[in-house]
Amino acid sequence: MDGMIVYLYIESLLLSVVTIWFLCQVIKKKRWFRWEKASLDMRNFIKRNEKRMNIISKGIVGIFLIPSFLWGVVPAIQDFPSVMSENYLEVEGIVTTWDYSDEEKPQTRAIGIMDNKTKKEIFVTVYSKGIHEGEHLKVKYLPHSKYGEIEENK
Q1: What is the C-alpha to C-alpha distance for residues 90 and 94, in angstroms, rounded to an integer?
Q2: What is the SS3 assignment for 90?
Q3: What distances in angstroms separate CA 13 from CA 10, 37, 69, 71, 89, one per listed residue?
Q4: Mean of per-residue pLDDT scores for the chain
């Protein structure tokens, strides 16, 4: 579980740094496109459209970055007390949804498991080799970010 926790918090830290940098750029009204630094043949076009280009580019980055921060960093922060107390949730059941990527290479995979107790499908992210539909797994995972580790593969 330690490897997935490190991965989760490194990812969250990088996303936080990029988000803070982006917000500083927006608050300070830094220009991303500058007509002064453009090549001679593009200078007039950029000079006419500089403000519009800066607003659109910052809007596009913000549309992707802010939700990524909310869906990635906030759950990681919420999971911090669970990590410190090693209080993980556990699910045991049949794999219903799995990642079709390279089967032999260990990597991060998103899977869905039908819980034997509650009969609800739980989606978790684990680091493993290929997982197939119908396999019986026991996984412990963090409650908010849904990052986990396979305990048993029956």
Answers
A1: 13
A2: strand
A3: 5, 32, 10, 13, 24
A4: 88
